[in-house]
Specification:
Order of helices and strands: HEEHEHHEHEE
Number of helices: 5
Helix content: 25-40%
Strand content: 15-25%
Strand order of the largest sheet: 2-5-1-6-3-4
Oligomer: single chain
Distance between the termini: 28 Å
Number of strands: 6
């Protein structure tokens, strides 16, 4: 039995299968995920798990070379935006309107749904390499 890191079997498997440049999403409880995109549904109750908890766990195990956010996060959720910038310090975010981000999410390999209920806590991550 695995004893540390991501213990959710579905999420651990999806992360292990990522290749360089693959896109995947971490989103809030209400983010509409396009048909055909596999969903790792982690939500237990409102706020559990948080976006921060989920992102931290994923970043502990995943090389990331880029990310995309809804431009609305800057004004409507500056605390979370700053947290993301601190969590991914050597990367410059790309931005698009939230409606475009929802459409673009059809390109992700999988999506992770959290219990987050704050505004615009959705991120598309691009897998990197560790060397």
């Amino acid at each position: 039995m695995k004893k540390k890191g991501i213990l959710n079997a579905q999420l651990a498997g999806f992360i292990a299968a990522l290749g360089h440049k693959d896109l995947f999403m971490v989103g809030d409880a209400g983010m509409p995920i396009p048909k055909g995109v596999p969903i790792v549904d982690l939500i237990l109750t409102a706020g559990v798990p948080t976006f921060k908890q989920t992102l931290d766990a994923i970043l502990d195990e995943t090389a990331v070379e880029g990310y995309i956010l809804a431009e609305e996060i800057i004004k409507n959720n500056p605390e979370l935006y700053n947290y993301i910038k601190i969590s991914l310090p050597n990367l410059n975010p790309e931005f698009m309107p939230h409606d475009d981000l929802k459409k673009f999410s059809a390109n992700v390999k999988f999506a992770v749904r959290t219990g987050e209920f704050s505004p615009y806590p959705n991120i598309i991550l691009r897998a990197g390499v560790v060397f």
